[in-house]
Amino acid sequence: MLCIEKPITVEQLRKMAVATFGDLIKAVVDIEKKIMVVDAPMHADEEKYLLELGSKQDNLWGINLYPDMKGDDFIEYDSMINVRPRLNNFTRGIDSKNIRKQIKLIIDRLVTK
Protein backbone atom coordinates (compact mmCIF):
# COMPACT_ATOMS: atom_id res chain seq x y z
CA MET A 1 0.00 0.00 0.00
CA LEU A 2 1.09 3.48 -0.75
CA CYS A 3 -0.26 6.72 0.74
CA ILE A 4 -0.31 9.41 -1.94
CA GLU A 5 0.05 12.97 -0.67
CA LYS A 6 2.10 14.32 -3.57
CA PRO A 7 1.52 13.71 -7.28
CA ILE A 8 2.05 10.28 -8.79
CA THR A 9 2.15 9.57 -12.51
CA VAL A 10 -0.32 7.53 -14.50
CA GLU A 11 2.62 5.34 -15.53
CA GLN A 12 3.34 4.52 -11.87
CA LEU A 13 -0.32 3.60 -11.41
CA ARG A 14 -0.21 1.49 -14.58
CA LYS A 15 2.72 -0.53 -13.19
CA MET A 16 0.81 -1.14 -9.94
CA ALA A 17 -2.29 -2.18 -11.89
CA VAL A 18 -0.37 -4.68 -14.00
CA ALA A 19 1.05 -6.26 -10.86
CA THR A 20 -2.41 -6.69 -9.28
CA PHE A 21 -5.62 -6.50 -11.30
CA GLY A 22 -4.26 -5.88 -14.77
CA ASP A 23 -6.21 -2.81 -15.82
CA LEU A 24 -7.27 -1.13 -12.58
CA ILE A 25 -5.91 0.07 -9.29
CA LYS A 26 -8.06 0.27 -6.16
CA ALA A 27 -7.87 3.50 -4.17
CA VAL A 28 -9.46 5.07 -1.12
CA VAL A 29 -9.63 8.85 -1.02
CA ASP A 30 -9.83 10.97 2.13
CA ILE A 31 -11.81 14.01 0.97
CA GLU A 32 -10.89 16.01 4.08
CA LYS A 33 -7.12 15.41 4.04
CA LYS A 34 -7.08 15.34 0.22
CA ILE A 35 -4.92 12.20 0.10
CA MET A 36 -5.43 8.65 -1.11
CA VAL A 37 -4.09 5.17 -0.55
CA VAL A 38 -3.50 2.87 -3.51
CA ASP A 39 -2.15 -0.55 -4.33
CA ALA A 40 -3.99 -2.98 -2.07
CA PRO A 41 -6.14 -5.99 -2.96
CA MET A 42 -9.20 -4.56 -1.20
CA HIS A 43 -10.61 -1.10 -0.54
CA ALA A 44 -11.21 -2.22 3.05
CA ASP A 45 -7.44 -2.65 3.54
CA GLU A 46 -6.81 0.89 2.29
CA GLU A 47 -9.65 2.24 4.42
CA LYS A 48 -8.17 0.56 7.52
CA TYR A 49 -4.75 2.04 6.74
CA LEU A 50 -6.18 5.57 6.52
CA LEU A 51 -8.19 5.10 9.72
CA GLU A 52 -4.95 4.10 11.46
CA LEU A 53 -3.43 7.36 10.16
CA GLY A 54 -6.24 9.30 11.84
CA SER A 55 -8.71 9.73 8.99
CA LYS A 56 -12.43 9.86 9.77
CA GLN A 57 -14.46 7.11 8.14
CA ASP A 58 -17.11 9.53 6.87
CA ASN A 59 -14.40 11.15 4.71
CA LEU A 60 -13.19 7.91 3.08
CA TRP A 61 -14.52 6.78 -0.28
CA GLY A 62 -13.50 3.84 -2.45
CA ILE A 63 -12.80 4.19 -6.14
CA ASN A 64 -11.05 2.35 -8.95
CA LEU A 65 -8.60 4.04 -11.29
CA TYR A 66 -8.08 2.83 -14.86
CA PRO A 67 -4.65 4.09 -16.00
CA ASP A 68 -5.30 3.28 -19.66
CA MET A 69 -8.58 5.23 -19.76
CA LYS A 70 -9.15 8.95 -20.20
CA GLY A 71 -11.76 11.47 -19.10
CA ASP A 72 -14.72 10.22 -17.10
CA ASP A 73 -13.64 6.59 -17.66
CA PHE A 74 -10.44 7.09 -15.63
CA ILE A 75 -12.31 7.05 -12.28
CA GLU A 76 -14.93 4.47 -11.31
CA TYR A 77 -16.86 5.36 -8.14
CA ASP A 78 -17.53 1.82 -6.96
CA SER A 79 -16.69 0.05 -3.70
CA MET A 80 -18.38 -1.89 -0.95
CA ILE A 81 -17.00 0.61 1.59
CA ASN A 82 -19.22 3.27 -0.01
CA VAL A 83 -22.44 1.64 1.23
CA ARG A 84 -23.27 4.06 4.05
CA PRO A 85 -26.98 4.39 4.74
CA ARG A 86 -26.35 6.79 7.64
CA LEU A 87 -24.79 9.18 5.09
CA ASN A 88 -27.63 8.57 2.60
CA ASN A 89 -25.37 6.52 0.34
CA PHE A 90 -27.23 3.26 -0.27
CA THR A 91 -25.16 1.91 -3.15
CA ARG A 92 -21.61 0.83 -3.91
CA GLY A 93 -21.34 3.96 -6.03
CA ILE A 94 -21.08 7.48 -4.68
CA ASP A 95 -24.52 9.04 -4.93
CA SER A 96 -23.49 12.59 -3.97
CA LYS A 97 -22.43 14.70 -6.94
CA ASN A 98 -20.58 16.98 -4.52
CA ILE A 99 -18.47 14.12 -3.11
CA ARG A 100 -17.73 12.81 -6.62
CA LYS A 101 -16.64 16.32 -7.61
CA GLN A 102 -14.34 16.56 -4.56
CA ILE A 103 -12.80 13.19 -5.39
CA LYS A 104 -12.23 14.16 -9.01
CA LEU A 105 -10.47 17.38 -7.94
CA ILE A 106 -8.24 15.41 -5.55
CA ILE A 107 -7.41 12.82 -8.22
CA ASP A 108 -6.68 15.57 -10.76
CA ARG A 109 -4.20 17.07 -8.27
CA LEU A 110 -2.61 13.77 -7.20
CA VAL A 111 -2.33 12.00 -10.58
CA THR A 112 -0.27 13.56 -13.33
CA LYS A 113 -0.95 12.43 -16.85
What report would you give on this structure?
The strands form 2 sheets. This protein has a 5-stranded antiparallel sheet, with helices on both faces. The protein starts with a strand and ends with a strand. It is built from 3 helices and 7 strands; from the N terminus they run ββαββαββαβ. 30% of the residues lie in helices and 22% in strands. Strand 3 and strand 4 (35-38) form a beta hairpin. The mean pLDDT is 96. By secondary structure, the protein is of the alpha+beta class. It has one domain (2-112). It is globular, with a radius of gyration of 13 Å.
Short description:
The chain has about 110 residues and is α+β, with helices and mostly antiparallel strands.
Element layout with pairings:
Layout: E1 2-4, E2 8-9, H1 10-19, E3 25-30, E4 35-38, H2 43-52, E5 60-65, E6 75-76, H3 97-110, E7 111-112
Parallel strand pairs: 2-7
Antiparallel strand pairs: 1-4, 3-4, 3-5, 5-6
Total strands: the figure is 7
- Our estimate of the beta-strand percent is 15-25%
Helicity range of the residues?
A: 25-40%
Order of strands, widest sheet:
1-4-3-5-6
Key descriptive features of the protein:
two-stranded parallel ribbon, single chain, 7 strands, alpha+beta, 113 residues, 3 helices
